[in-house]
Amino acid sequence: MAGQFSETKNATKEIQAICDQVKPNVGKYPEFIAVKYRVQIVAGQNFIIKVHVGGVNYIHLSVFQALPCDGGQVVLRGVQEHKTEDDPLVPF
């Protein structure tokens, strides 16, 4: 439904590709593997993505992807560090 975030879903190749695009802006981690995500349909898409960054460490990314007709640009909006595997994906 437009305007609301989806339920939490398992990450896909497409979600990993989005993470790979913003990784240079996030920092250096031994791993950078998308695990879970939520999406909100707006004039584009907002994503909250859980990323495994090594060991028991996770981060959450807030990412916006513009519509293809607007260039499809991917923009990192925020990062939450010190997350765990069990932390829920909450919009921030």
**What's the N-to-C terminus distance?**
19 Å
**Shape designation:** globular
Which class of secondary structure composition applies to the elements? Answer: mainly beta
SSE string, helix = H, strand = E? EHEEEE
CA-based gyration radius = 12 Å
Give the class-level CATH name. Answer: Alpha Beta
- The structural domain count equals 1
* Unreliable runs: none
- Please describe the biggest sheet, giving its number of strands, its sense, and whether it closes into a barrel: 5 strands, antiparallel
Mean pLDDT across residues: 94
Q: Report strand order across the widest sheet.
A: 1-2-3-4-5
Give me the number of helical elements: 1
CATH architecture: Roll
Description of the structure:
- With 92 residues, this protein is mainly beta.
- It has one domain (4-83): Roll (Nuclear Transport Factor 2, Chain: A), CATH 3.10.450.
- It is built from 1 helix and 5 strands.
- The protein has one helix spanning 13-22, and strands at residues 9-10, 33-42, 44-54, 57-65, 74-83.
- The protein has a 5-stranded antiparallel beta sheet.
- The relative contact order is 0.23.
- This is Cystatin-B.
- GO terms for molecular function: cysteine-type endopeptidase inhibitor activity.
- It is found in: Cytoplasm.
What's the helix and strand layout?
Layout lengths: L8 E2 L2 H10 L10 E10 L1 E11 L2 E9 L8 E10 L9
Antiparallel strand pairs: 1-2, 2-3, 3-4, 4-5
